[in-house]
Amino acid sequence: MPTEPPPTADDPSLALREVRYSLPQLLRELQLERTGSVFAREILDQKEIAQIFATRSKKNVQRRK
Q: What is the pLDDT of residues 2-42, one digit of tens each?
């Protein structure tokens, strides 16, 4: 059973290809993702977590005094 040789650096199938995206289209997709419920919920979760840690750190500072 013959094995195929590994591709060489001059192999055209390994050449880099440029991909161009439409900036307006990307911005629309980003806006949709940001207004989507999952992304919005992640932001809320981050804010709630930050508030919990801020409250805990304030309580710890008060206890130490």
A: 677 666 666 777 777 788 899 999 999 888 887 777 766 77
Distance CA 26, CA 32 (A): 10
**pTM for the model:** 0.34
Tokens, residue 7:
């591709």
**DSSP secondary structure string, 1-65?**
-PPPPPPPTT-GGG--------HHHHHHHHHHHHHSHHHHHHHHHHHHHHHHHHHHHHHHHHHH-
CA distance linking residue 47 with residue 55, whole number of Å: 12
